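Human: We require from you a standard protein entry with sequence in single-letter code and fold as tokens, and nothing else.

Assistant:
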Amino acid sequence: MDASSAAIAQLVEHSTENARVAGSSPACGTTPLSRVFLTLLLLLVALVGPVRAADGRVLLPGDRIEIFSGDEPTLCVVRTVSIQGLVSVPSVGLVPVGNLTLEEAAQRITDALVGTRQSHREPVRLRGLPPREQTAIVTGAVAQAGKFWLGTEDRLLELVQKAAPTDVASLASVRVSHFDGTWGTFDLTQNQNPRVLPGDRVGIALQSGQSNVVVVGGVRWPGVVRWRPGITLGDAIAEVDGLNPHGRADAIVLTRSGSDLPPLSLDRDRAYALRPGDSVRVTLVDRPLFVSVLGPVVQPGLVPFKDGMRLTEVIKSAGGIRAAYQVDIVVVSSVVNAKRTVKRYSLAKIARRELADPVILAQDSVEVYPVGYGGGQ
């Protein structure tokens, strides 16, 4: 996507969102002014070239979508994907849409409506909306993949540098997808350095012809592991800090020379020898759950959850405490049976075994505070 096309894409996104906020949407009609504005934009797009179409981007917790259907005005709603990957649909209830594309999620909601309403005939449509938080996600050949908070003028190169590209990362082909599914590829070596928008997802590819192993999926730090003689499946996963709570140790896919080999198990096949160019993908659990972590951690935001997870493990999954901070107090908020409880813990007391490391629940919110905030539990 060139600079002109990227600018037009942003204008279309912003104008459509503004129209919705003003009381209109693709489902509920469009104001005359917005129709004129969009017509002018389309003419300008015809001159500078179209933006690229949707790239199969999937919905993640925290993503915002608009649901609409021509024959059902009550479906004209905006929803945020929950940490369980669910959205609430009028007259239907909760529908799982996590890890689905907009098109797949729309079909799932349509199927749910058809199952409850004999009169519903027109398919549901979805539109991605700008996120509420000012963050972007970086994945691929970087040392610190994950979510990053954006400043007011952050650009692609600065964001990629925060994620620490590995020595086998290709900065000549950086893929950026936006919240609405449009995308572009940029060459940072040629000063193609666009502004990063909230909700962007940045993918850093590998340099071609490198002798390395790629490890992705349900691991703590997806990325590239340098191949060496004798390296095994267990070695490669250990170098990315092991499986994350959503990774399935019994369902690991190894791709070699473009073909998937029979599924591997970490317990059974830990000593399986890897070759240069192998790609290891750890399958994720079917219904991932998350915990929210805020404060001076390396990667604040949502971290993968599993049953029996303890507080110190949750903080480790968020990348641990930032080097510049000393922390002690952690506040854990839980909602059980519609009742909210708040508990405070001292990490120092947990480290000295004066206090038990508490078990965390799915949907809990964990807030980490620097030393000096106050006393622990």
